[in-house]
Amino acid sequence: MAPLGGEQGYLLFFLRWFHFLAGITWIGMLYYFNFVQTPFFGSKFVADNPQVRAGIVRGGLLNTALWWFRWGAMFTFITGWLYILYVAFHLYGGLREFAATSYGWKIFFAGMLGTTMWANVWFVIWPYQQVVMRSAEQVATGGQAIPDAAAKGARAGLASRTNTMLSIPMLFFMGAAKHLTMTDPGGAGQKWGALILLAIVIAAAEINALVGPAAPATGGKKTLATLRGTFWGGFILTAILYIILAILFR
């Protein structure tokens, strides 16, 4: 991939820069929710002091964190796909030529995993957390809790843990695109095999996130019930994706 000079080079640089800034914001907030806030909510301190949880939910901290979370995801999504399309058409001459390279496939894998995570943010986590926050507000002002608030909160949590797992192969393939060599795909069979593999992974993760058991440590959520399980799931998934992709593109 030859570097671009002049205005095109600057545009590509700024696309990457803003993609990095937005991505760090998004994934940083994702890790904050999963590594810090959720374990804190489950601690004995919060169980013994429900006003602490109410203060976080009603005091603006959760709403502010979710604002940066969802808009970080949106700008990461937009700049990421602009970058992929720009590189495909200006450095490779089109999508077909881009798809004939292992670089293109590794970036595409990262982009599709990121797109799945973005969809979870905007269509599962954020809408369901709004229900949780409205329910907390109603209870605090003397009203009744929204009946399905707890279930939606659990579903949002499962989708968030799913995103944490998917972030590991997503970041791997972003870094691997130019730093881990792999033979370029030669035939249509290889490309279809890669697409089928990616579709199976995304479908399995999303089916579990959207309709799998959301109660702690049951059924399909058992792997994602703990941070350790989530990490292992992410690293194992990364290894499976890369090994099969390397076999396909050998």
Pick out its properties.
single chain; mainly alpha; 0% strand; 250 residues; 9 helices
Describe the structure concisely for a colleague.
With 250 residues, the protein is mainly α. It is 80% helix and 0% strand.
Protein described:
With about 250 residues, the protein is mainly alpha-helical. Helix content is about 80%, strand content about 0%. It contains nine helices and no strands. Helix 1 runs antiparallel to helix 4. About 0% of the residues have low confidence.
Mean pLDDT over the residues: 89
> How many β-strands, per DSSP?
0
The tally of helices reads: 9
Shape: elongated
Low-confidence stretches: 217-221
Strand content: under 5%
The termini sit apart by 20 Å
Largest sheet: none
- What is the gyration radius calculated from CA atoms? 20 Å
Helix content percent band: over 70%
Helix and strand element order: HHHHHHHHH
Structural class: mainly alpha
